[in-house]
């Protein structure tokens, strides 16, 4: 941009005015291109509502994969509890059998707080309203600058066409009449401590031993392992175990750096995996991973599970006030996906998922950053601001702008 | 999230097709999982088991038999004996391997092969790292030196792993192996078309001829019945 021109006085003024106009226009076009490049006209607001559904019973030949879903709890356990209840609620609506185990809350109380299922019409109406609201903002101009994006398929605002699973209203609890038709079993640790475990202990924590025994007994008695050929209709057992590994289960991995027995949890998971593989069942376990000091245990636990999802809530962290995340309540980290009965696994397009809890719905969406309308080229995150503040205080005037800011 | 388990499926079907006698210690998945994938790769594990070519130890099932089984198994102790009594060694497992691969009179199979998926699970089940290494050592003596066969072992590892016991086992295995297939994710992150990168390290240095190990790096994409390998940066999606 540096030219040496020789002009006469009055022409110079005119020339520089034109130059400024050119520069401003250039910046404007650049900004526009950047905006269009990053955010094409169709809003990328795809809501991928995650459903946990176990296969279709109608196809008897195909063996149903038994998935061990393992959720790392968020710090206050709010959202992982919600996922836990969703899993169980889906079981109720599908008519599966439930087995709920907890050391903290009585399973009866957990089941009383399951979210109510939404009838298809009401949900579609709600989604439909939001979809039309979004569409009215779209305008069908053909793209002038980012024209390469013209031919890309538009993102669906919401997956109303897929019939996979059910939707739930978290503001209401499930009506008791839905429970009438299903069988459910509970395991509340304080009530089970009096019974003696009959299986070989294999040096495992006694609470885990009792839980395993209870699960094995249910699987055998109710015929989920196919041991009873006369059982007329096959059903699926949905097992939910809350806060495994916490102190309430008698395990000290959450409370001490050098726990007495680091193998109890992993042995438990292995035997549980064996029980699930042998039967028609699926299991969700929530674990307060943030409390486990020994990270080796979490690595081993991840290897032993089919699917591992971590929830990171923004409550109490600096991200709560970060404008980047203002639409969301937390992030979803998928550490492992099941790779059962095939070489490949169902890998999704994106790994950046975030969740939010609205008044009625809990949704998991692609992490979508709002447009960056700041003056600087790159986004300001709290880290950059902190760094530039540090530099300012140390007196380096020229460097005070911060590392990432490239101002010309 | 990168997993080297596709290599286990490959070696299983490869050795079975080559006519070797295979002892497969499958600790992490059930028999039906391997069977379904092997069928896609053109091998039937059930048939191989029936004709005595494949001896399959289903760890999950053995574990249940051991813990919930009411009566003692006739004669031989369970290969996973170390689970129940807190016994510190894997002798029972080794005995199982040795008995499976020692050729019976009527066998006409080519060299024996021991396949383990995956060794890191033994650590999770309470075996000490030294016990695991001893087990592998004993197996090498029998399978490789005495019976002139091969051993293929899968282990998990992380770059920033805090699992010291696991890292110890992995490092030791790497030192003793003739061939290392190191599967890892791409350094640049997740990609739909390139699932990961595989480093093939031929331990030529073990032959004491003052040569360095040969390292080859390829990237791969896993498909339903096949895995395609290609040189770095030359994925079909890019070309």
Automatic annotation (TrEMBL), chain A:
Q: Which GO terms describe its cellular component?
A: cytoplasm; elongator holoenzyme complex; transcription elongation factor complex
Gene3D superfamilies found in the cross-reference section = P-loop containing nucleotide triphosphate hydrolases
Q: Indicate where this protein is primarily found.
A: cytoplasm
Membrane-spanning parts = 18-39
**Record CDD domains:** Elp4
Record carries keyword Iron-sulfur: no
List the subcellular locations.
Cytoplasm; Nucleus
Q: Which UniProt keywords apply?
A: Cytoplasm, Membrane, Nucleus, Transmembrane, Transmembrane helix, tRNA processing
Please give the InterPro entries that the UniProt record associates with this protein. Elongator_complex_protein_4, P-loop_NTPase
Pathway membership: tRNA modification; 5-methoxycarbonylmethyl-2-thiouridine-tRNA biosynthesis
Give GO BP annotations, semicolon-separated: tRNA wobble uridine modification
Which family, according to the similarity comment? Belongs to the ELP4 family.
Q: What does this protein do?
A: Component of the elongator complex which is required for multiple tRNA modifications, including mcm5U (5-methoxycarbonylmethyl uridine), mcm5s2U (5-methoxycarbonylmethyl-2-thiouridine), and ncm5U (5-carbamoylmethyl uridine). The elongator complex catalyzes the formation of carboxymethyluridine in the wobble base at position 34 in tRNAs.
User: What name appears for this protein in its UniProt entry?
Assistant: Elongator complex protein 4
Source species taxonomy: Eukaryota, Metazoa, Chordata, Craniata, Vertebrata
From TrEMBL, chain B:
The annotated pathway is:
tRNA modification; 5-methoxycarbonylmethyl-2-thiouridine-tRNA biosynthesis
Q: Name one GO cellular component term.
A: elongator holoenzyme complex
Biological process, per Gene Ontology: tRNA wobble uridine modification
Q: Where are the transmembrane segments?
A: none
Q: Which domain of life is it from?
A: Eukaryota
Any one Pfam family here would be ELP6
Assigned protein family: Belongs to the ELP6 family.
Q: What is this protein called?
A: Elongator complex protein 6
